[in-house]
Amino acid sequence: MATEEIKEMPKSWAMVGGEGPQSYTQNSSYQKGVVDASKEMVTEGIKDKLDFKSLGFDSSNDTFRIADFGCSVGPNTFFAVENIIKAVKYKHHAQFNNSPPLAFQVFFNDVPTNDFNTLFKTLHSNRKYFAAGLPGTFYGRLLPKSTLHFAYSSYCLQWLSKVPKEVVDSKSPAWNKGSIQCDGLKKEVTKAYSAQFQSDMNTFLNARAQEIVGGGLMVIIMAGLPEGIFMSQAGVGMYYDLLGSCLVDMAKLGVISEEKVDSFNLPLYYSSSTEIEEIIKVNGNFSIEIMDSLSHQIWQTSKKSNIKVSVSGGRAVFQGLVEEHFGSEVVEKIFEHFAKKLADNFSIFDGAAHEHIDHFILLRRNVN
Amino acid sequence: MATEEIKEMPKSWAMVGGEGPQSYTQNSSYQKGVVDASKEMVTEGIKDKLDFKSLGFDSSNDTFRIADFGCSVGPNTFFAVENIIKAVKYKHHAQFNNSPPLAFQVFFNDVPTNDFNTLFKTLHSNRKYFAAGLPGTFYGRLLPKSTLHFAYSSYCLQWLSKVPKEVVDSKSPAWNKGSIQCDGLKKEVTKAYSAQFQSDMNTFLNARAQEIVGGGLMVIIMAGLPEGIFMSQAGVGMYYDLLGSCLVDMAKLGVISEEKVDSFNLPLYYSSSTEIEEIIKVNGNFSIEIMDSLSHQIWQTSKKSNIKVSVSGGRAVFQGLVEEHFGSEVVEKIFEHFAKKLADNFSIFDGAAHEHIDHFILLRRNVN
């Protein structure tokens, strides 16, 4: 049985829970911007590409099942899901205008250490769908065969299942000393990260291929890079480099050890659209219906607007990782220093030669 | 759509979360005793009553879906679910011995304020089923139509959706002044509680009737009373009366107000098997396949064994209710006093004329 594949990601991969001032709930305006920017594309994608007849729907099939893979704690996931439901209803009415209304079931997925308590407490009480939580890594099976009609994953798949081991191995040619990310400056490091990304994407696609019915759709939104651009050339890469330099500063001050800094790498990989396209084609379970990038001004705006937003947004995402690696007693110090350094150096982002992009991909599960 | 019926129960209905010394996880040995005592009956019930053919299974239906309504935070729910899966697998093999193995999906239901985080973190990593959390009151719809093959609810349905309003209304003939429970000493109080129970059971049965496929089974285990016996005649009723008398003591000491004590009633109703049978028959969606009571020694044992277990078990269950009504600042004082009073009066339980019983009911969803 495929459930034997179930595996768990480490605790640190979860966003900061609760609803407090440092929570993901309160600090995910960038991710909300991504949801907003993709809203119209999701609506149009469903309108153009969803076909109830090829999904095997007739008047007796009354439940349409949706999953959000990597939903975190809301409210972004609720906006995204409600938008999908609205578009699906519209299309259903267009295809079968006299049949009874669809029922909807929505599976909210994230790692078991995600704050599902907050997610569940903030579910809208007047929601018009059946809600279920799905604890587990999406790099593995989560649902029975042919469960879903629509899968969605926003801003998650740039997160790898793990940091490739070579990049933290001092004996490997891919040792990434002096950097905490795949900055693109060392070929062996890029190769190791790219191989991990390829393997993880394949695992994800294979799991979803089992769970999505033939003809079902999947929207993937993920951070990426324009063709031929490295992380170190993009504003976001400079942001991560600045976090890295804070860790080096902390090591110099004796707050954390140099070895700890050397062994810390972000499990993030920003891919190009060519790279993703190739992986999806080789995988073979899905056809690419739309491959685009989001046009939005969030990154530019958040850069200019507000250093505080920039720090707290990063903290809501990375605190778990930093805490797990360096210990909870130094977290406050590290992020305080990061805030200061970011304020002192904020102008460097205006000089960034490039910006990252957000891929928008709409896939259709091939009918076997 | 039936999802419009969704409604939430107040926070206090959830058991104490986490895994600490006062948690339900650490203090549910009585409920575990119920699970153990019912294990064999569930196994035998599935063996005798589950019929895959009437459920419409053939070799192409590979997922068997189970829900535990009112699962709390484990580990009891995991034991119960694993026992069900084992029995279902055995029966499936007996009915279709050459077909591929079933996949299992399990929905863990409880109110949205239940500690799902602890539940999800303690899911067995080597489990052989797909797990999902289902936040919401079971007195309402939680799943799409015809989702489940097997429903289970252990030690929950004696909890009402609310305290009947008459019993806390000083102008009503059913005003329950001087008691915190349906002790059976006042006809009007019993009538109000009984009507609430009847209404709640009907709501529960109607919701499950939608969710369970024709031919599907449901096991209900719930606290009850032998025919003709009142709560005040049973050991458990004396236990609740003792808690009530502690509240009166606290009011006399000025820790809480008398009005607060008068307006506090437990949303619990212990029914007789005749009463339940009548409700199920009038409801008409299910046939009664087995109606029995559990033979177990837990109550007797826990009475004799350990005052500490008796206090902490009660606290894990009732703390939320007490806290919501009287305020968090007095909870510690109330339960300290309860522990002392219980120790001083523990011998009274040996003099109890009767004991409550635990109903074991196996229902089959009628095929429409």
TrEMBL record, chains A, B:
It holds the Pfam family Methyltransf_7. Gene3D superfamilies: Methyltransferase, alpha-helical capping domain, Vaccinia Virus protein VP39. The keyword Transcription does not apply. GO terms for biological process: methylation. Signal peptide: none annotated. SUPFAM superfamilies: S-adenosyl-L-methionine-dependent methyltransferases. Keywords: Magnesium, Metal-binding, Methyltransferase, Transferase. GO terms for molecular function: metal ion binding; methyltransferase activity. InterPro entries: MeTrfase_7 (IPR005299), MeTrfase_capping (IPR042086), SAM-dependent_MTases_sf (IPR029063). Transmembrane segments: none annotated. This is Probable S-adenosylmethionine-dependent methyltransferase At5g37990. The lineage of its organism: Eukaryota, Viridiplantae, Streptophyta, Embryophyta, Tracheophyta. The gene is LOC105123435.
